[in-house]
């Protein structure tokens, strides 16, 4: 990764995924209010819920020797939409990727603490990653359709997991998923067309359709709208609202407005700490923590 | 003086010019209040003088050295009395070596005809003349060039610009060497090939099924029936290359996949350099291995299985060539696989696909054009590979599909036809150039297509 | 759509089958790597096991009585007598000292084939230099005959056939027991040129030839390659001709090496009338062949110099040429050197084009200049590998080891250089 990219704020999230350790130094904001002190492991607001889907306790993530997540505890309830916000490099994407073990492929990444999905440890040695990911789907920052047809993109997951016995079942799953993603009417007549030829917004909705075709219980979204224009973003946000009836959705976003629009709860991360978790309305009107307030009022970020 | 001795002399002159011009430019600058009043630094005036001194002299020296021999030879041969004048190229080269041996004192003058010794004296004389004249001219040009530059040392002249222009021209000429090389290759093969087709019809060359150039040694047999049919050479080349690719492509591709997807960093750090070692082994070593170890082994194995196998089987050459190409395929595939964006991989893994499913149904199809390009490059390598087949494949041009048989290839024939004694105008020698042209065209075509595919593929993901 | 519970059940159900596939795929990968590494190991063990005996020479040490009468020689300072004398006789006599009953003509012939065919020359040269030694007795170490050497080194090896008669085998066993025939370090291999006799052949001639050839290649290819790379990266205008040059370079890099031999033959020998078999010619051909590699790696090195450095220098008012010569080139030099060393290593191992320009000649003398006939290491290996005498096979393998040692050293040096001079921007 070239250094030039890091200095460009528009791209800084790309950096964060690949190169966490470097970014930490770069993005340490000097303008942080000097009087504020973060107490490690102490999160204000309501991090815990009854009967959670995810129960995350004392999670720490390291890239090599550098801590990226410092002692975070959080519950994620069933069928809620929770948004992770915070300045660049605060660890929100890293934390999100822990939830379906997408960090496994980064050699230097180590994870401590307890992460449970429905009471079962995500990182226990016997845990099956494939099965976990079939239950916890993910949508990425940049639309990443496979260079195949639209149909094959959506059918890919059900095919590998053996979810359909007949062609007609598969057709049903594809149609259903595309409908849920609000894409069906646009593409029903060109299912065989290359997915890479679609517009950015369509591609991202296709990726969502692809994720929900496996019928996951949770959908993780890593800044799903950052590469899209406002109209496409609005479309995706509507979609998130519709999906929240059936799925638990965890969304990382850079846009506070988006978090305010789509989520029930909002978690604010700062330099690897989970500073505050509260109902979204509360966070954006009367934040409890000074840092949260500074952030949402635009003093840094 | 000889060319080799003149080179250092020119360099010394250039150094002298540099030193003098440097002092001169400082002297010019002194009354004006120092070198800051010159348009360029003294070093530039000096460098310009050195370049002016050396470059023209070197050009003249180079031209002289390139054509001296030809001109002298022509005049010496022309001086021979009619009855001694050679009729064919072969006689000419014999006569020539006789004359030069005589001139060098390696031959007893009593043993050769009168006219020849006269020619030898002439040769000696011409050589001395040429050498004297060359020395004089080179020194003169060097001094003149240096003097010219010396007169142009003045405060208002920007020497830096002209030095930079000269340097840039030199750089350009260096870059043009690549083009000259290509032109040289094209012309050297085309010229001889055209001469070859004057002796052997094109259709016979391209569609003939029998190859035995040795029978054409005698003049009355030149172009005799079926002696120059290229088909068996092509089938032989194709068979060996196909065997090589059948080994190299799966092994190279799968090892690249394993190394980039599964292997831990430690394993990668050990295995990758070892694969690269295979690429660094000279082809003559592979040839030795193929001819002295693999070929006998395959023959013995075939005998054990009750099969008839040649001791120079196509299988042995192909097998070893395959081993040679493995690192080539694996490093190309590695590049191509790594060029597939990470996001696609993540997309598939996040759906719960296993690594092999991701590989087979997402990365592989995406990388396919690049991999195809890589395989084409590997094929061009296999077709052009020479030493392994020269040492391990046979000379007999069999038209066969049995890999245990001995076959011959285009490159083997080029080498066989051109090593040892040769005359420039025999169909046998010229055939080698015709083969060279076929080889050049085929590999060029493969390379151009492959590079295009690979580049297109890169652009797709950039 | 079905309910999530049964979905999860379906996923779990398919897992076993999928993991089996996964394992199979992974196994294919491991198998592929194993095949590649196995080939490498086999290649190296084969060469080492064939070649280590090339570094061992078998000698016959005899007390030779330089008897003038026996040699038909009464004045060793007379060149005519030296030319006619029989120097084999005292050697046979010395051997007969161990085997007194070997007196028949056939026995004598077999005795004379215990030492190498250059043994008599050795006696001759000794007497030529010191005529006074005539009549004295000297202890002389002769190289053993090829067949004896094969028998001593390789008896029982199925790869070699023993070509000694039973009587000779008995003699050899006896002499080995008495310490007359012995193995030692093959210094001849490192101090001689080629020879018709394996026991007298060495690699030094080819080594010097290679060094001379590489010298020419380096002197031509490095400056031209670097200059071409600088032009293409820094000065070339974006036009059709520049594109043409680039396409040319990329294609030249993939042209089969044997084609460069044709170029050398037709242009350098045919048009310019250069002599065959000389290092200058070989070096020139290899330089043209290596040029694309050097240009490509040099361009990569220049590209890796960050634009900020150029901008900084330009900001001070340096001309384009000054920027290049003062800043870009020094910073790119490690990369260029590394690429060039790797290109040179390729050239050092190259054989095919040199066969076409006549560097395949049988050359006994060590070449003494850029214009004297020479051969190079890989070609020497090629010649030996194709020779009929069994002793040459081990020499070829030993030659390969020498060649590989050079290549490994060069590559290691390139890696060291890269590590050492690597700059982090």
TrEMBL record, chain B:
It comes from the Bacteria. SUPFAM superfamilies: MetI-like. Pfam families: BPD_transp_1, DUF3708. PROSITE patterns: ABC_TM1. One of its GO terms (molecular function) is phosphate transmembrane transporter activity. The chain crosses the membrane at residues 45-67, 135-153, 165-191, 238-259, 279-302, 314-333, 362-379, 430-451. It is found in: Cell inner membrane; Cell membrane. Gene3D superfamilies: MetI-like (1.10.3720.10). InterPro entries: MetI-like, MetI-like_sf, Phosphate_PstC, PstC_N. Keywords: Cell inner membrane, Cell membrane, Membrane, Phosphate transport, Transmembrane, Transmembrane helix, Transport. It is a multi-pass membrane protein. The keyword GTP-binding does not apply. GO terms for biological process: phosphate ion transport. Residues 234-450 form the ABC transmembrane type-1 domain. One of its GO terms (cellular component) is plasma membrane. PANTHER family: PHOSPHATE TRANSPORT SYSTEM PERMEASE (PTHR42727:SF1), PHOSPHATE TRANSPORT SYSTEM PERMEASE PROTEIN (PTHR42727). Belongs to the binding-protein-dependent transport system permease family. CysTW subfamily. Part of the binding-protein-dependent transport system for phosphate; probably responsible for the translocation of the substrate across the membrane. This is Phosphate transport system permease protein. It comes from Marinobacter adhaerens.
UniProtKB/TrEMBL annotation, chain C:
SUPFAM superfamilies: MetI-like (SSF161098). This is Phosphate transport system permease protein PstA. Belongs to the binding-protein-dependent transport system permease family. CysTW subfamily. It is a multi-pass membrane protein. CDD domains: TM_PBP2. One of its GO terms (biological process) is phosphate ion transmembrane transport. It comes from the Bacteria. InterPro entries: DUF3333, MetI-like, MetI-like_sf, Phosphate_PstA. One of its GO terms (molecular function) is phosphate transmembrane transporter activity. Keywords: Cell membrane, Membrane, Transmembrane, Transmembrane helix, Transport. Pfam families: BPD_transp_1, DUF3333. PROSITE patterns: ABC_TM1. Its main location: membrane. Residues 207-414 form the ABC transmembrane type-1 domain. The chain crosses the membrane at residues 25-45, 203-232, 252-274, 280-302, 395-417. GO terms for cellular component: plasma membrane. It is found in: Cell inner membrane; Cell membrane. The gene is pstA.
């Amino acid at each position: 990764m070239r250094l030039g990219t890091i200095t460009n704020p528009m791209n800084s999230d790309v950096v964060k995924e690949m190169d966490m350790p470097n970014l930490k130094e770069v993005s340490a904001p000097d303008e942080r209010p000097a009087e504020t002190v973060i107490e490690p492991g102490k999160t204000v607001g309501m991090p815990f819920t009854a009967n959670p889907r995810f129960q995350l306790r004392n999670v720490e993530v390291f890239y090599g020797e550098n801590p990226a997540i410092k002692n975070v505890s959080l519950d994620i309830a069933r069928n809620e939409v929770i948004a992770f916000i915070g300045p660049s490099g605060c660890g929100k994407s890293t934390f999100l990727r822990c939830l379906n073990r997408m960090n496994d492929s980064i050699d230097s990444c180590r994870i401590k603490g307890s992460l449970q999905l429905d009471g079962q440890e995500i990182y226990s040695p016997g845990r099956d990653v494939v099965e976990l990911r079939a239950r916890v789907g993910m949508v990425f920052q940049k639309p990443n359709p496979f260079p195949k047809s639209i149909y094959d993109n959506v059918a890919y997951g059900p095919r590998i997991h053996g979810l359909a016995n007949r062609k007609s079942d598969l057709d049903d799953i594809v149609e259903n998923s595309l409908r849920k993603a609000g894409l069906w009417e646009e593409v029903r007549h060109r299912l065989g067309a290359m997915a890479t030829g679609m517009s950015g917004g369509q591609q991202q909705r296709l990726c969502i359709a692809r994720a929900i075709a496996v019928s996951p219980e949770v959908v993780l979204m890593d800044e799903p709208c950052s590469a899209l224009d406002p109209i496409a973003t609005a479309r995706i946000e509507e979609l998130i609202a519709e999906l929240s009836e059936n799925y638990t959705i965890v969304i990382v976003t850079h846009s506070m407005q988006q978090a305010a629009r789509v989520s029930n709860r909002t978690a604010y991360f700062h330099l690897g700490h989970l500073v505050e978790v509260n109902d979204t309305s509360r966070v954006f009107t009367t934040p409890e923590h000074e840092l949260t307030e500074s952030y949402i009022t635009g003093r840094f970020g | 003086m000889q060319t080799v001795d003149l080179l250092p002399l020119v360099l010394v002159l250039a150094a002298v010019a540099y030193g003098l011009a440097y002092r001169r430019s400082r002297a010019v600058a002194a009354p004006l209040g120092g070198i800051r009043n010159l348009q360029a630094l003294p070093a530039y005036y000096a460098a310009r003088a050195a370049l002016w001194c050396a470059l023209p002299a070197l050009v003249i020296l180079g031209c002289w050295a390139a054509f001296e021999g030809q001109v002298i030879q022509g005049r010496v041969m022309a001086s021979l009395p009619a009855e001694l004048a050679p009729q064919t190229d072969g006689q000419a080269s014999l006569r020539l070596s006789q004359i030069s041996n005589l001139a060098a004192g390696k031959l007893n003058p009593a043993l050769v005809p009168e006219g020849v010794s006269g020619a030898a004296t002439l040769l000696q004389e011409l050589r001395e003349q040429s050498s004297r004249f060359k020395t004089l001219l080179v020194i003169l040009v060097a001094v003149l060039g240096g003097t010219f530059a010396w007169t142009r040392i003045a405060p208002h002249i920007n020497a830096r610009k002209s030095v930079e222009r000269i340097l840039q021209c030199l750089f350009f000429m260096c870059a043009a060497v690549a083009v000259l090389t290509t032109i040289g290759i094209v012309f050297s093969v085309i010229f001889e090939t055209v001469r070859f087709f004057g002796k052997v019809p094109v259709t016979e060359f391209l569609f003939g099924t029998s190859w035995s150039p040795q029978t054409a040694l005698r003049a009355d047999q030149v172009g005799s029936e079926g002696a120059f049919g290229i088909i068996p050479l092509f089938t032989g080349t194709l068979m060996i290359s196909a065997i090589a690719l059948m080994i190299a492509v799966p092994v190279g591709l799968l090892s690249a996949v394993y190394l980039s997807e599964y292997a831990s960093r430690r394993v990668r750090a050990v295995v990758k350099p070892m694969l690269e070692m295979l690429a660094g082994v000279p082809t003559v070593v592979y040839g030795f291995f193929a001819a002295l170890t693999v070929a006998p082994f395959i023959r013995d194995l075939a005998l054990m299985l009750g099969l008839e196998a040649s001791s120079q089987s196509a299988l042995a050459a192909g097998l070893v060539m395959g081993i040679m190409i493995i690192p080539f395929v694996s490093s190309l595939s590695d590049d191509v696989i790594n060029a597939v964006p990470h996001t696609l991989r993540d997309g598939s893994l996040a759906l719960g696909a296993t690594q092999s499913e991701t590989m087979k149904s997402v990365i592989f199809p995406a990388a396919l054009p690049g991999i195809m390009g890589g395989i084409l490059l590997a094929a061009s390598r296999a077709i052009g590979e020479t030493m392994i087949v020269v040492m391990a494949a046979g000379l007999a041009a069999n038209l066969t599909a049995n890999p245990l048989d001995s076959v011959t290839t285009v490159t083997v024939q080029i080498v066989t036809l051109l090593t040892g004694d040769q005359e420039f105008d025999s169909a046998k020698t010229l055939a080698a150039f015709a083969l060279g042209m076929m080889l050049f065209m085929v590999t060029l075509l493969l390379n151009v297509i492959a590079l295009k595919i690979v580049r297109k593929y890169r652009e797709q993901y950039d | 759509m079905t309910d999530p519970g049964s979905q999860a059940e379906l996923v779990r159900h398919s897992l076993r089958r999928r993991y089996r596939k996964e394992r199979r795929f992974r196994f294919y990968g491991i198998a592929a790597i194993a095949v590649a590494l196995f080939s490498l190991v086999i290649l190296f063990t084969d060469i080492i096991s064939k070649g280590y005996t090339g570094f061992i020479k078998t000698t016959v040490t005899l007390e030779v009585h330089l008897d003038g009468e026996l040699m038909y020689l009464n004045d060793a300072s007379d060149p005519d007598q030296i030319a006619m004398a029989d120097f084999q006789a005292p050697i046979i006599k010395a051997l007969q000292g161990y085997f007194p009953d070997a007196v028949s003509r056939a026995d004598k012939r077999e005795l004379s084939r215990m030492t190498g065919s250059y043994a008599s020359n050795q006696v001759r040269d000794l007497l030529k230099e010191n005529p006074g030694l005539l009549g004295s007795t000297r202890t002389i170490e002769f190289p053993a005959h090829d067949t004896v050497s094969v028998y001593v080194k390789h008896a029982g090896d199925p790869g070699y056939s023993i070509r000694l008669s039973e009587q000779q085998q008995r003699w050899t066993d006896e002499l080995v027991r008495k310490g007359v025939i012995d193995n030692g370090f093959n210094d001849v291999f490192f101090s001689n040129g080629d020879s018709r006799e394996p026991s007298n052949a060495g690699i030094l001639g080819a080594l010097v030839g290679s060094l001379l050839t590489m010298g020419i290649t380096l002197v031509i290819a490095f400056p031209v390659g670097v200059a071409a790379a600088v032009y293409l990266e820094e000065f070339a205008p974006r036009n059709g001709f520049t594109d043409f040059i680039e396409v040319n370079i990329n294609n030249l890099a993939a042209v089969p090496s044997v084609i460069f031999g044709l170029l050398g033959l037709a242009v350098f020998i045919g048009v310019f009338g250069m002599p065959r078999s000389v290092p200058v010619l070989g070096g020139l051909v290899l330089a043209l062949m290596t040029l694309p590699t050097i240009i490509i790696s040099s361009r990569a090195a220049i590209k890796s110099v960050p634009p900020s450095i150029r901008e900084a220098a330009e900001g001070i008012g340096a001309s384009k040429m000054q920027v290049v010569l003062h800043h870009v080139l020094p910073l790119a030099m490690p990369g260029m050197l590394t690429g060039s060393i790797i290109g040179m290593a390729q050239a050092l191992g190259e054989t095919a084009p040199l066969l076409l320009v006549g560097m395949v000649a049988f050359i006994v003398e060590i070449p003494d200049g850029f214009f004297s006939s020479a051969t190079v290491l890989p070609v020497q290996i090629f010649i030996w590998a194709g020779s009929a005498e069994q002793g040459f096979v081990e020499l070829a393998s030993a030659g390969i080891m020498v060649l590989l040692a050079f290549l490994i050293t060069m590559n290691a040096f390139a890696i060291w250089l890269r590590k050492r001079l690597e700059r982090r921007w």
